[in-house]
Amino acid sequence: GQQVMQIPQYQHVQEGEDFTTYCNSSTTLSNIQWYKQRPGGHPVFLIQLVKSGEVKKQKRLTFQFGEAKKNSSLHITATQTTDVGTYFCAGPGNKLVFGAGTILRVKS
Amino acid sequence: DAGVTQSPTHLIKTRGQQVTLRCSPKSGHDTVSWYQQALGQGPQFIFQYYEEEERQRGNFPDRFSGHQFPNYSSELNVNALLLGDSALYLCASSLAWSGNTGELFFGEGSRLTVL
Predict the structure, then answer these.
(1) How far is A33 from chain B (nearest CA, A)?
(2) Peptide bond into B43 cis (omega under 30)
(3) Which residue has the higher pLDDT, B28 or A22?
(4) Torsion angle of C-alpha atoms A47, A50, A54, A59, degrees rounded to 10
(5) Which of B53, B9, B3 minimizes the C-alpha distance to B29?
(6) How confident is the prediction for chain A on average, in pLDDT?
(7) For B21, which of B10, B61, B76, B87 could close a Cys bridge (C-beta 3.0–4.6 Å)?
(8) Into how many domains does chain A fold?
(9) Residue of B nearest to A94 (CA)
(10) Domain span at residue A8?
């Protein structure tokens, strides 16, 4: 079955540093979604990527979808304490397949 | 506009017992999916309901069952609880017409502890 792998599992950065998490699928994805889950909270939708090579930006967040549509990345520029949480990528379909997530901690 | 609501928020059960969790989808949504999230893991798909029928199912045993009501709300039932069923159970709603491209709206979850 489809699997979605995320790296790294955990990253601890100094406030102001950049952060990147990577997502790799065992199969070609028709689309990919990204979610953020704050500590003690629930996943919240961030964005969906559909096209090969697509790049989307949301303020300090940049999302990329690979040319082969088998990988994706989320890059945060100049992290802030409000960025703390777990970032998940999720494969497509009516039953989303989530990666294990990358936990981001930010030191102020 | 109410989002996805789940109840109860926390509950404690003992092994062998049964539990029912409830979910009301976001207003206007007709599809409800259930996920299990163990500590430190990503959400795992249990099943999805649309038009009061189970449409898709993940890799979960028959001890996990569900129901959807005419008002689109849903229940998740787990029988013969095991210690390993301890997790956060998340309900997510969406629109059926969006197929596999629509975002999921998650509730706050029900945290189940099995002793």
Answers:
(1) 8
(2) no
(3) A22
(4) -10
(5) B3
(6) 94
(7) B76
(8) 1
(9) B100
(10) 4-107
